[in-house]
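Hi X.,

You mentioned you wanted examples for the new student's onboarding notes, showing what a folding record looks like when two proteins sit in one file. Here is a clean example. The first protein comes first, with its sequence line followed by its structure tokens.
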Amino acid sequence: MAATSRGRVRRTKNEINMVPFIDVMLVLLIIFMVTAPLISPSQISLPSVGQADVQPKSFVQVVIDKDESIQVRLGSSSKSSPSIKMAQLASEVSRLQGSAAGDAEPTKVPVVISADKGIKYETVVKTMDTLKRAGVERVGLAVQSSR
């Protein structure tokens, strides 16, 4: 007699067992839910504004008004000067630096930008970029210190 095996034939399954995958995902979800409130949002530490030790003797002031018109003055004089365009800014600042320099080198005369707080930040950055490209070495921003 021929021996026949009485065992069941085992077939391989073609399905993926999802239970371990779901277990791992639930554990990761719990970990993220617990750690998310512990992470503090990033905060930027801005520099504080103080007063300079010595104010410059002569400087060129670039004033940007609410309507983004640009005026260039020598020093902190309050007399109004005509508005100029951004393309004329470099030549006007160079001219005033030359007259304010005296014995010093004209590019060493500082330029102070006074801008209205309601204008776009982009306008101030474009002004600074224009001055830097024109070769102005010292560009600063005028601020109102809170006391």
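Then the second protein repeats the pattern, sequence line and then tokens:
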Amino acid sequence: MKRSIRLRHDIARRLADQAIARRTSQAAIIEAALDSFLSPDAAERLEAALSRRLDRITRDLGRLEWHVALSNETLALFIRNWLNVMPVLPDSGRDEVRAQGRERWERFVEALSRRMEQGPRLTTEVSPDVPNSVSGSL
């Protein structure tokens, strides 16, 4: 039975592009899509696909959480150590020390930029599989 349908222009264009790319007819693509949509297990397939995607997102969020925790602990440990070792500066030498601080900051930013672009990354040196690797004490 031959039927005629109207599609929005953008959908018709995408359908035509897919037919060309797959070297098949537009009717074959529409039939396959309708068959999939109307099949009794379409809801289960959709649920399974969504479940797989949610599982992947959950794993990705777990890795992201680990990286953020590592960054936070690294920064906190650095600040704690820095505060413990830095002496109070006398008023007379502050300008010279600030100039050295600016120079050291610029070198740090350059080194950080290189490491972020080229690696290696700290997260490759610290394993997320080791218990307490992020919050362990030194």
